[in-house]
Amino acid sequence: MSSYSPDRFQSTPLVTPAPSPSQFVVTVHQSPARRHQYAVTGRAVASRHRAGTNLTTVLSRPGHRPRTHPGERPVHALVLPAGPALYDAVRRALTGDGPAVLPLSPDLPRPALEAALATLRPTHVVAPDGVRRQPDGVPSGAALIIATSGSTGAPKGVELTAEALLASARASLARLGAGEGDRWLCCLPPSHISGAQVLVRSLLCGAEPIVHPRFSPAAVAASGADHVSLVPTQLRRMLDSGAGVAAFRTILLGGAAAPAGLLAEARAAGARIVTTYGMSETSGGCVYDGVPLDGVDVAIGGDGRVRIAGPVLLSGYRLRDEPHLDDGWFVTSDLGSVEDGRLTVLGRADDVINTGGRKVVAGAVAEVLSGHPAVRDVVVVGRSDPEWGEIVVAVVAGKTGAKVGLDDLRAFAKERLPAYAAPRAVELVPRIPLLPNGKPDMVALRNRNR
To answer: Per the database record, which ranges form the AMP-binding enzyme C-terminal domain (predicted)?
Structure first.
């Protein structure tokens, strides 16, 4: 394969060529209501597919090393739907034969997209209608850049090397017992690390990923994939719709804390769930069912925060000089404990609610309330109060036909938590508002009714 040349892509329209043995091809499922502006190659065929020359084969060739381009590697912002063009770019980024990639969702509102491009300064922007050079673009030594900002502030670019991404994917496959020919379903945005890692695992398995640009419980259940990554909201919707969750050998569940009630219900329906903990800075999930993946170390600092070390860590934040590691450890924003080698995440450090001088971990309260028989989804937030400083507020999406109120939830919580941790207000919503990555929109939740 020829090496990447930036000039070659200055004004060339983006065309998806016919697949060849050296190309990565994906099977794409999309609803008739939404058609993208480029041709999708590949189609659903047998349950086992070979994806041409897989990444393991390429990287294991004698003398082959991923090319590195410290300070000189172009950065392509890929404003593309999931499909062959995006995935081939990621494959080439991992082998070092192409530029670094910065996947950005094509569904981003224009102001958010412009803010991401202005902050992260890619050298080129790739869209369905072509490629344009950015005059103020800055190269990178990374393979993949993940834009992460939640719903606040300017986006931050997490830079990940091919070595970190591959170390994560190899450890994941080893833990799951997944191997060559196993197919993965991607129904999470590739602009987020959870979606991007589905591709990396697929490449190492040498099998086409199945791509669902829009989440449909029925289509997910009928996909024929061996493994899938979901967030709790997606799993909840599959259970509510009666979709068959037992069809997969593995469901990786991450992105947010999974309520115990949800896990119990899914497992009773035959789902083989593996809960994951991680973030963009750790190349995705690096702790499975509380146990770190091989090569990953977890510790709790004096401030109670979870610390992570190992080959999966980021190389830095794009165009930022701030330190990203503390003596080799990445310090998370989560509180946790480790007992007998198993990590328990208690909640985010910034989700501690100070109510009347007592500290309450919002995630711990939400975990308890999720066990109430009338609660489908719940998020707990702190809200300013003139008497208490902050009060505990439960934002609840109830189950269909069920009634839930403040007195009932307070009584339920008091049976399981200190009285001061019980919610002092309950707000009922049809659904918990979510960010594109499936996590609760905490800013929207905290600002409700203000």
So the answer is: 365-439
- Does residue 334 contact residue 307 with C-beta atoms inside 8 Å? no
Question: What angle do the packed helices 193-205 and 162-176 form, to 10 degrees?
Answer: 70
Q: Are 9 and 92 in contact (CB under 8 A)?
A: no
For 349-446, which CATH class? Answer: alpha beta
Inter-residue contact 19 to 45 (CB < 8 Å): no
Q: What is the pLDDT of residues 191-216, one digit of tens each?
A: 999 999 999 999 999 998 999 988 99
Question: Half-sphere exposure of residue 64, counting CA atoms within 13 Å on the CB side?
Answer: 13
Two structure tokens written together for 219: 């289509």
Nearest-angstrom CA–CA distance, 377 and 242:
17
Q: In whole angstroms, what is the distance from residue 354 CA to residue 420 CA? A: 10
Q: Which long-range contacts (CB under 8 A, 24 or more apart) does 19-25 make?
A: 19/52, 19/84, 20/52, 21/52, 21/53, 22/52, 22/53, 23/52, 23/84, 23/88, 24/51, 24/52, 24/84, 24/87, 24/88, 24/91, 24/203, 24/208, 25/51, 25/52, 25/84, 25/208
Cα-Cα-Cα-Cα dihedral sign, residues 348, 245, 87, 40: negative
Residues of the chain with pLDDT under 50: 1-53, 60-64, 68-69, 150-152
Q: Round to whole Å and give the CA distance between 152 and 443.
A: 8
Cα 446 to chain centroid distance, Å, stands at: 23
Q: Which CATH class is domain 1-339?
A: alpha beta
- Fold agreement (1-339, 349-446): no
Cα–Cα distance between 22 and 9 in angstroms, integer? 20
Buried b (16+ CB within 10 A) or exposed e, 129-162: eebeebeebebbebbbbbbbeeeeeebbbbbbbb
pLDDT digits (tens, 9 = 90+) for 330-380: 999 999 999 999 999 988 888 889 898 888 989 889 989 999 999 999 999
**C-beta separation of 233 from 255 below 8 A:** no
What are the sequence ranges of the domains in the chain? 1-339, 349-446
